[in-house]
Specification:
With 135 residues, this protein is mostly helical. It has one domain (2-125). Helices cover 64% and strands 0% of the residues. The chain is built from five helices and no strands. It has helices at 2-18, 28-57, 65-78, 85-88, 105-125. The chain starts with a helix and ends in a 10-residue tail after the last helix.
Length: 135
């Protein structure tokens, strides 16, 4: 179900991805490469979160609170509720959200930091002996 929801959002936003292309073919290869990679990463995260929740709670729980927590923290704590909508959809190098080569490394860093906590539970789910609590 998660992949279906991910794909639905992608289909709805496809005009946004292609609107800066000089011609329709220009958006083909970036999507051919990023769609399978994005789906693989999303699926892998789902597997890690579900497996680690089995160790922590005794049953598999799939709830993307990690991502939601990152988004809420960014919006309320970091940006104080402010988003520059024009810059959000801009490909200008001087826009607020452009980052380095068009990639916001801060966003990826926050996202992966939120996921790292699940790695211990995932390791326990696959049979690695992990300590429970701090001694």
């Amino acid at each position: 179900m998660n992949c279906t929801a991910n794909f639905a959002a992608l289909v709805i936003n496809n005009p946004n991805f292609a609107r800066y292309a000089r011609k329709p073919q220009d958006s083909l290869w970036p999507q051919v490469i990023t769609i399978p990679v994005g789906f693989a990463i999303t699926s892998f995260i789902g597997i890690i979160v579900s497996s680690s929740s089995s160790v922590i709670f005794g049953k598999a729980v799939w709830n993307p609170l990690t991502l939601w927590g990152v988004m809420v923290s960014d919006y309320y704590l970091m940006r104080k509720g402010y988003l520059d909508i024009e810059d959000l959809y801009s490909a200008r190098k001087d826009s607020l959200y452009y980052g380095v080569y068009g990639v916001s490394w801060h966003g990826y860093t926050a996202y992966f930091c939120g996921i790292l906590i699940n790695i211990v539970g995932f390791a326990g789910a696959v049979g690695v002996d992990v300590p429970i609590g701090i001694l």
